[in-house]
Amino acid sequence: xxxxxxxxxxxxxxxxxFYMKQSEGFSKLVPTVITFVTMAISFGLLSISxxxxxxxxxxxIWTGIGAVGAFIVGVLVLGEQANAMRIVAAALIIxxxxxxxxxxxx
Length: 106
What we know:
Layout lengths: L1 H21 L6 H21 L5 H22 L7 H19 L4
């Protein structure tokens, strides 16, 4: 269950990052509220996953999902640039996440 909580926490990290961008420096109420609510959910699920997963693994996976997810949302939803170097960088993050998962006991 810890891995499921961790993946969901990572997804919520992407959501709060997106809405933080939409809040325009916390100047828009609805995106600001969504940011803080989803942030709380993300942190809460991360903390639950850390009950049984090592700190380094949990935090690395959580931030990696957030980083790659935010990159994907930025490209697909916000029209941000997706050049070869950025794609390779995202692929390297994903390979690092896979290695971290494989190196962690179940």
